[in-house]
Amino acid sequence: MYQFTVTSWNVRGIRSQAKKIKIFDYVSRLNADIVFFQETHLLKSEEKSLTDSNFNKIYNSCFNSRQRGVSVLLNKRLPVNIINSVIDPEGRYIIIKVVIYNKCFTILNLYAPNNDDPDFFHRIFSELSDLSADSSLIIGGDFNLALNTSLDRSSKCSNTKPSRSAKILMDYMEDLGIGDVWRLNNPTKKEYTFFSPVHKSFSRIDFFLSNNSIVHKMSSKIHPIIISDHAPISLTLQCDSNQKVSSLWRFNTSLLNDSKFEKIIRKEWEDFLLTNDSPEISPSLLWETGKAVIRGKIISYSSFKKKQEQMAEKTLEEKIKKLTEEYAANPSELLWEKLQNTKLNLNIILSKKTDFILQQLRYKNFDYNNKSGKYLANQLKHSKENSFIAAISDNAGQTLNLPQDINNIFHDYYQNLYSSNLNPDPEDIKTFLNKLNLPQLTIDQKTTLDSPLTLQELQNALDSMSTGKAPGPDGFPAEFLKHFWSMLAPLFFRVVTEIKNKGHVGGHMNTANIKLLLKPDKNPILPSSYRPISLINTDLKIISKALTSRLEKVVQSIIHQDQTGFIKNRHSTDNVRRLFNVINMAQNSKKKTIILSLDAEKAFDRVNWSFLLTVLGKFGFGESFIQWISTLYNKPKASVTTNKITSQSFTLQRGTRQGCPLSPLLFAIFVEPLAAAVRQNSVIKGIHSSISEHKINLYADDILLYLEEPQSSLEEVFNLINSFSKLSDYSINWTKSSILPLTKNSWNPAHQNPQHPSTTNTIKYLGLNISPNLNELIKLNHDPMLDKVTEDLRRWNNLPISLLGRIASVKMKILPKINYLFSMIPLKPPKQWFQRLDSTTTKFYTRNKKPKISLSTLQKNKDEGGLEAPNFMHYYLANQILYLTEWLNPKEYYNTWLEIEQLDCKHIKLSDLPFITATLKHHNCFKNPLIASTLTAWWKALDITNGQLKTSILSPIWHNPDFKNKKTPLYLKTWEESGITHLQDLFENDKIRSYNNLTQAFDINKSNFLQYLQVTETIKKTTPLDLTTLQPPELAIYMKKISTKSKKLSKIYRALSNTNCNYLPIAKWEAELSITPSTDFWAEICCNTFKMTKNTNLQLIQYKVLHRSHITQQKMHKMGFSATDICSQCTQNTADSYLHALWLCSPVQHFWILITEKLSSILDYIIPLSPNLCLIGDLTMLQPPANQSQSILAALAIAKKNNITKLERQKNP
């Protein structure tokens, strides 16, 4: 059986936040799947206020004034597919055609006119006739009429004749075969949905109509008249179905804040162990049984707690309903008084609950509004995610839409995907691997990996888990185990020991539940378009994470640096930088070269376990660690959940589960032999530099092959991958793979085999569009990104977000995308691109108004008078300088982008490039566009930070184009080998070394005085050998300092953005306040703005005051919008300057006197009446107790908010 519930309610306005909370709380208690609201009284601009986390599809019909308005809300748990919809522009009705549980319905929510208007119903049923074919009707709402006046109206009105509208409606009901669901189930009962306080009469004017053929499957209920003057009504439809709708239990983490709950659980666990723990009981069995017992206790406690919380409300609601029926039948003053008192008592309870929720919302809003985080991210979401799968195609190509059929298809699809028909001969695997030269773990590494897991390691693994993540099938999230770890750890440690000894995970611990996410831009009808996420039990994940922590410490030593995916200290930027260097190198060589982009088919899901375990042994992993992996992959099970249906579990036979911490590293180990085989195959020709060969780039399963002699190399690649696939289950989808020729005539598509990948002009790699013409990268990547950013900002523009929230939105949602491009693609976008990006963000910050504070000021640091809005040019420069820090602190050069760039620099070391002047433009290295972009960015950064591109003590002596003797750069091999490499080596104690000092310090042959003269004189031609003129720029020193540090990007960006200036209108403030403060005064004032309170609205008020951004009469006069600059709010006949408007104006002065006196009284501390304190927040004259200073500033900010609001409305404070 399946069922869904529709609730209809005339709410008589839902604009009030308190009323909205009451209504949604009650709707939640009614367990509504579809909600009809009438009389919402919302304007079109207020539609987004009608949101609730339980409803992911909301339809609104609004009127042009605060009247009428209907809404339809669909619960996110309801498996619904929208076919069509009609929304009345006059706020009277909404019609939606939907498929629910494979049944087609046309649902209509209406609010009929309160006058007798038959034409309305003619119009309604005319609309319905076009939509309702081949579907069942569910019509509900406020009809504003009674179908049966004798039964549907109280005794005072029972003799009234049916209205013309009622007659027309009944005619349509008869013609269409639809009936009044409640009346058909209650033929003679009197019960009402509306009370008229004017007439003190009751009527049933809210009801549901549906097809007579399905009414017998429906039940309808009228609830008490509370909150509104209409009662909510519900309809529940039950249908026969073989579908097994399931709801996986999940622990409610809010219970962890309940001290009573904690005591109960601890006592329950203690009693359970006392009763059941014995030597003959397996720890694994005890653990699984214990979880089941605790789960039962939690369910019981939660149910009891919920009933207790709702008991008082439910009792009062039943009493209201009973008194309503009694009063409608026999009105009396006594019954009326009892009814009103009961409603008042219920309202008190509801108001208390609402006040608590509102208070929580206010706290949340105060702390998190307009800040980066989930609160803001939810506001920016384009649409709420819908996990409902409407239809799916089976193997025969037939499209099925029954929920159970859909689940069956996915069950079969994943059972087949995780089943392996391949059973490779272990000897064949060994033969393949023995041909390869693979690295081995050291004895120490092997010993560490094989040592028993400790309790501390398990705790560290648990502590490292993120909160708020979905749990596995057992329903216990990481938060539960963290909270009760001290109680659970002793038994769990015994379980881990037993698993290791037995080589098998007992019970349901090794069972996962597969959730499906539709991949971007994929066809939702195909099972392969969904990404399977395995929700693994937290207890198993602890073991996996502990093993992962060990593995990630050694994996770098066995996985070649060609692979960068999910390996610590390796980055996808290395892959892309290398790719661009290889393209540049190939084009310069003019050889026939191609890039082969491989599309691995379900790579993580096709890992053959026998092959994986053999590979682990080949890399030198010990028996104990391999046994752990074998144990975790010993008959694991999984089930698939779609549309609230969970399939039967099935046994996995291959694959690494997406969701398991071990999977990424195990996959890297699994695929490494293929990469090694490519590297070590002499028939496969990679793209050559003068000293090495570049063949393969890997980021997890994203693989690029760089090939010369394409025809023969490709054939060998196909043969090699075919051999690898027969042993490993690994499979390449050749139809989705592609060939990218790098030079003309590299590859002729006409000559390729039909099984070959297609030839393209561009390939997609790590989210980037790659062309062999590097100059096209901006057009292919940056331009589409800018269009997407513009669209996002346009969509967010009308959201109720402040300036600080808008900056946070850009930093949280836009900046990461832009930064990704900057980090990957070194080429600089044109000036117009940055201008358009800045213009677009500025319009977003100012809501398309003229900015009162310039973008350049907003981009400054907060202590400089800015709001740290992102400066995209600076971020571009910072990302390029990141590569420069790699030059300064190079890792192993072989076979990386560093090696290629070093070759292009010839004798000049990469680490020396930043310390050579612009003469490098004429050097061979500058022909490499990546080096040129990085150096150009470096020079621009020096210019921004007032650093000079000049020779310094960090400059190299040898091969430096700045130091030429007879047009040839200096180079003395013996001196270089002796350790003399940079200008700083020529100095000691701030003075140039004498010849004798130099020969002694570096053990140089004393007969080389002429060489000494040659070196020093050649350098002097360019720059004086004087330390005062040879000091490097501060930025250069800083770059060398952070080259080995973490979080380099943010450090570089901050260095570029730090100007050590203040961008407040300081001169105006100092003149008006007659102050001459210290250097750090204004920086402290700026910092106080953001320290005084968490609330961004108050911070913004103070920030705008400091920038004097509010409009005064004087400013209006200067702008030509006012005939006079005299203040109209006082009798002083004085120009309305900024200080006058916020301080000197007599009514404003009176306001500040009241504020300072009140604060002094509250704090028991004298708050002086001073504009220095009250306006700009100068605490130096006050010196309050440490715990009061921020409170004083926050209170003054609130006072300014009141003052400024009145200023903007041009009213007296």
UniProtKB/TrEMBL annotation:
Q: Where is the Reverse transcriptase domain?
A: 498-770
Pfam families annotated for this entry?
A: Exo_endo_phos (PF03372), RVT_1 (PF00078)
As given in the record, the signal peptide range reads none
Q: Which Gene3D superfamilies match?
A: Endonuclease/exonuclease/phosphatase
Molecular function (GO) terms for this protein are: catalytic activity
What is the protein's name according to its record? Reverse transcriptase domain-containing protein
- List the source organism: Gouania willdenowi (Blunt-snouted clingfish)
Q: What is the lineage of its organism?
A: Eukaryota, Metazoa, Chordata, Craniata, Vertebrata
